[in-house]
């Protein structure tokens, strides 16, 4: 259980990136956080990853407060951020340096196989396409078998075709490893296709304004009626939150946030 | 899988695209010799045909004859060894100092604020201007020469080291943080490989300046070394000896740069520029 407990984050320049954020994510759940740019969704992930410290409140994983990067929490950035001087296999093994050599090799081989890049083990990052590089980045985050995987708009830089295939790929990996996923995105279709639950954020200060339990099973048909309906629901929530913001009134957040 | 196949096709296209020159490295290597050989033959012909006078600009045959004489008497080797030794000592001294100070200035804000302005000021002084002072301080023998060369090598390496550290991407460092690297591990696994390409470039620049400054150093009074051959050739009116020494400098500079590059190449294969195209 990942719990974000009345977290504030104010940057030194006075920006209130996050105010009174509360969120509980169950083990193995897929949660999507949507909202426009500057609404604090990336800040939320950086705090959960332990890269930044909260100004108030705390973030806990199974009761343990997260104040620094934690071995059970993985993070995938918007860009692959592969280390150009390491091969694909070495990049994937980067977070496993504390494991014995044999175990490291086994884990790397397993993940490489999973992401379908076994033939690319000895390649340099510069030899990969954007989609392949992001797959390696996901593999690198998954190799240490984290309980929670945080993804910060991981597919936003990819073309629509690659994005769709990587979304399905992410679901495959989730089936295999069952990590808790917290996915930040501005792509409503992505949220509707992947998530169990969608949270809508608004900026200034960054906060949760709505929560939608999609209640859809898997596999989902990307252009089927259920996903389309979920998309409309999310869009309506975004729109409502926007109007609520314009009129200056705070929307009552849906229950149990 | 279809996506992967198109990627391979693209890669092939990319590798083939910049290959308007002959593919075999041996051939390309020989190509580099063409221009100097053509120029030398042209000059030789011009002198032989009486189109120009060869007295002040001797033809290649005379230059190589001089080189051969110097080599046969063992004199050339002596000069080459002493000059190379001076460059090596000065370069080593300058690089060690520049690397340490550059690393310190790059890592600690306080150190940077403390030393960088002063060093930038000193950098503006033409290094030859130190010659009289170094002679007063260190005498006219090896010490002053090596220190002058070290000063010449110092600045490009210091600047390269400092610039490389300051330009390491915060995003790359964050990858290290997310995997909880200790500070020494962060330095070894992220910072060192990230700064290496720029550092190697600065070493090459430093080495080039080392060869430049050894001449200045040998001008200020030496009884042996390639710089001495230059001065000697001028005083005795032997332009072919000057050209022979210049030729030796060209060869030594190229060889030392090549050695430096090939020493660094195994660590830089990941770079685009060092890509062995297949």
Q: Nutshell version of this structure?
A:
The complex is a heterodimer of chains A (257) and B (278). Chain A has helices at residues 41-49, 88-92, 101-114, 130-142, 160-177, 188-194, 225-246, and strands spanning 2-10, 16-25, 30-34, 56-61, 64-65, 73-76, 148-152, 180-185, 197-202, 207-213.
What tags apply to this protein structure?
heterodimer; A: 257 residues; alpha/beta; 6-stranded mixed sheet; 4-stranded antiparallel sheet; 7 helices; 23% strand; globular; disordered C terminus; B: 278 residues; mainly alpha; 11 helices; disordered N terminus
Question: Can you tell me the overall shape of chain B?
Answer: globular
SSE pattern of chain A, N- to C-terminal: EEEHEEEHHHEHEHEEH
Q: How would you classify the quaternary structure?
A: heterodimer
Query: Helix share of residues of chain A?
Result: 25-40%
Total helical segments of chain B: 11
Structural class of chain B: mainly alpha
Give the DSSP E fraction of chain A (strand runs of 2 or more residues).
15-25%
- List how many beta strands of chain A DSSP finds: 10
Strand order of the largest sheet of chain A: 6-7-8-3-9-10
What is the total tally of β strands of chain B? 0
Structure description:
The complex is a heterodimer of chains A (about 260) and B (about 280). By secondary structure, chain A is α/β, with parallel strands linked by helices. In chain A, about 35% of the residues lie in helices and about 25% in strands. Chain A contains seven helices and ten strands. Chain A has helices spanning about 40-50, 90, 100-115, 130-140, 160-175, 190-195, 225-245; strands spanning about 1-10, 15-25, 30-35, 55-60, 65, 75, 150, 180-185, 195-200, 205-215. In chain A, strand 4 (about 55-60) and strand 5 form a beta hairpin. In chain A, helix 3 (about 100-115) crosses helix 4 (about 130-140) and helix 6 (about 190-195) packs across helix 7. The longest helix of chain A has 22 residues, at about 225-245. Residues about 245-255 of chain A have low confidence and may be disordered. Chain B is mostly helical. Chain B contains eleven helices and no strands. In chain B, helix 4 (about 75-105) runs parallel beside helix 7. Chain B is globular and about 75 Å long. The two termini of chain B are about 25 Å apart. The model of chain B is unreliable at about 1-20 and about 275-278 (pLDDT under 50). The interface between A and B is medium-sized, with 28 and 26 residues.
């Amino acid at each position: 259980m990942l719990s974000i407990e009345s977290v504030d984050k104010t940057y030194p320049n006075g920006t209130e990136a996050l105010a009174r954020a509360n969120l509980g994510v169950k083990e193995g759940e897929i949660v999507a956080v949507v909202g426009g740019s500057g609404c604090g969704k990336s800040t939320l992930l950086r705090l959960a990853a332990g890269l930044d410290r909260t100004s108030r409140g705390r973030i806990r994983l199974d009761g343990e407060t997260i104040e620094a990067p934690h071995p059970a929490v993985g993070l995938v950035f918007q860009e692959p951020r592969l280390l150009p001087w390491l091969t694909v296999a070495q990049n994937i093994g980067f977070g496993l340096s504390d494991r014995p050599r044999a175990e490291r090799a086994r884990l790397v081989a397993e993940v490489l196989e999973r992401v379908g890049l076994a033939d690319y083990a000895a390649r340099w990052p510069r030899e990969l396409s954007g989609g392949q590089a992001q797959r390696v980045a996901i593999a690198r985050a998954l190799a240490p078998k984290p309980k929670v995987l945080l993804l910060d708009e991981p597919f936003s830089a990819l073309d629509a075709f690659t994005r769709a295939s990587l979304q399905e790929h992410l679901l495959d990996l989730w089936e295999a490893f069952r990590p808790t996923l917290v996915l930040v995105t501005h792509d409503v279709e992505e949220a509707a296709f992947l998530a169990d639950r969608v949270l809508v954020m608004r900026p200034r200060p960054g906060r949760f304004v709505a929560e939608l339990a999609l209640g859809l099973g898997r596999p989902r048909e990307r252009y089927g009626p259920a996903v389309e309906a979920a998309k409309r629901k999310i869009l309506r929530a975004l729109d409502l939150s926007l109007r609520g913001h314009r009129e200056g009134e705070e929307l009552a957040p849906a229950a149990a946030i | 899988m279809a996506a992967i196949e198109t990627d391979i096709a693209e890669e092939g296209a990319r590798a083939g695209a910049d290959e308007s020159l002959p593919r075999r490295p041996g051939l390309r290597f020989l190509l580099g010799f063409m221009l100097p050989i053509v120029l030398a033959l042209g000059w030789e012909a011009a002198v032989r045909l009486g189109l120009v006078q060869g007295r002040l600009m001797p033809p290649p045959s005379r230059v190589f004859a001089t080189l051969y004489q110097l080599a046969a008497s063992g004199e050339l080797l002596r000069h080459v060894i002493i000059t190379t030794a001076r460059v090596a000592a000065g370069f080593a001294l300058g690089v060690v100092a520049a690397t340490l100070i550059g690393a310190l200035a790059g890592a600690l804000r306080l150190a940077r604020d403390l030393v960088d302005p002063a060093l930038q000021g000193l950098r503006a002084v033409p290094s030859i201007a130190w010659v009289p002072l170094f002679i007063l301080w260190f005498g006219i023998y090896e010490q002053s020469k090596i220190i002058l060369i070290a000063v010449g090598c110092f600045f490009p390496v210091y600047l390269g080291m400092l610039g490389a550290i300051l330009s390491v991407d915060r995003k790359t460092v964050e990858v290290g943080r997310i995997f909880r690297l200790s500070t020494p591990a962060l330095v070894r696994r992220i910072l060192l490989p990230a700064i290496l390409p720029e550092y190697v470039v600065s070493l090459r620049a430093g080495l080039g300046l080392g060869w430049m400054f050894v001449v200045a150093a040998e001008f200020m009074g030496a009884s042996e070394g390639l710089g001495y051959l230059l001065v000697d050739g001028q005083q005795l009116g032997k332009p072919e000896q000057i050209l022979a020494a210049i030729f030796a400098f060209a060869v030594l500079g190229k060889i030392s740069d090549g050695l430096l590059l090939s020493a660094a190449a195994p660590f830089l294969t990941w770079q685009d520029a060092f890509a062995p195209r297949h």
